[in-house]
Amino acid sequence: MGQKINPHGFRLGITTDHKSRWYSDKLYSNYIGEDVKIRRMLTKGLERAGISSVEIERTRDRVRVDIYTARPGIVIGRNGAEAERVRGDLEKLTGKQVQLNILEVKNPEIDAQLVAQGVAEQLASRVQFRRAMRKAQQSAMRSGARGIRIQCSGRLGGAEMSRSEFYREGQVPLHTLRADIDYGFHEAKTTFGRIGVKVWIYKGDVSGTRAERAAQKAARNAAGGRSRPGRPGRGERPARGDRPERGGRRRAEGAPELTRAEGAPELTRAEGAPELTRAEGAPELTRAEGAPELTRAEGAPELTREGVPELPRTEGVPAENVPAESAPEPTPAEVGAASAPTETSGQEG
User: Fold this and answer.
1) Segment-wise mean pLDDT, segments of 10 residues, the chain, 349 residues
2) pTM as predicted
3) Which one, out of 111, 129, 320, 348, has a CA that is 20 to 30 A from the CA of 86?
4) Measured between alpha carbons, how far is 262 from 278 in angstroms, rounded to an integer?
5) What is the DSSP secondary-structure string of 174-223?
6) Which runs of E-coded beta strand occur in 61-216?
7) Phi first, then psi: what are they for 64, rounded to 5°?
8) Which uninterrupted H or E stretch holds 58?
């Protein structure tokens, strides 16, 4: 039975409530017809608004219509012009004074009717049905749904024979009465026929009776955004000056030796390690004093720029960057004379 009955009607009076709230003895059939016409007019006239549900409540001379939509700006219009037009049409249809309330759906990804409409719109725009179903499933599960099932029926992909395919993720207990299951249905009008889309979304179990849940909802609305129970309010928190700094005590008391100025003065380069300065501690590594034979100006005068004046573009380039082809090749005698002091120094060492 859980596969064939509407989840809203199956749990009516247990976890769900009526979408139309009124009572009449003689005008019952007339009111039923008006409710159907109201819902049909709103869904056809405001297709782009993403209407999730329409709740109707009647009194003796007034009709209250609550529209739950994902895009309230489209229903309201500029300066409320669209809302006034809709209210005028409803008054003409019912012949009574109409109170129109436009309510926003906070999380449309886990609203079954809106998910079904989204999948149907993608099928009408020639999107692959498997891709559309998978994408809707992933977005619903990311938004906090406990489980979701999507079923498409019709000529899927333009096939000659119609069939039904469904995908399920998570858990969807259709027989459990305390389970809060949202159900939605929409039809996709394609060029090869209509494709029906059904969506079941499981949001968790409902605890307590309907009266208790109504009392809890009224208490939440009366609270008006107060802090959650069990959590201190913003006014109860200690001032920032009274709270200890994070990590400040550990750094100041437990590891004072890490301060560079007081605890480790020997790490300063000028005072604690003067031997590492190149001019005083290691004068033998300076090229001018310790290794005069490697200076090109004295030991190899043939590689200086004076010997290649025909390359004016190498004025800004240091002597090391002068190409080997442009410099004159040294004679064997010059090579021997330049390398002679290095060999004698090696024998002495």
Assistant:
1) 76 88 90 93 86 91 91 88 91 90 90 94 93 93 93 93 94 90 93 94 83 76 53 49 52 51 52 51 51 52 52 52 52 51 45
2) 0.60
3) 111
4) 26
5) SS-TTEEEEEEEEEEEETTEEEEEEEEEEEEE--S-HHHHHHHHHHHHHH
6) 62-69, 97-104, 147-154, 163-170, 179-190, 193-205
7) -105, 125
8) strand 51-58
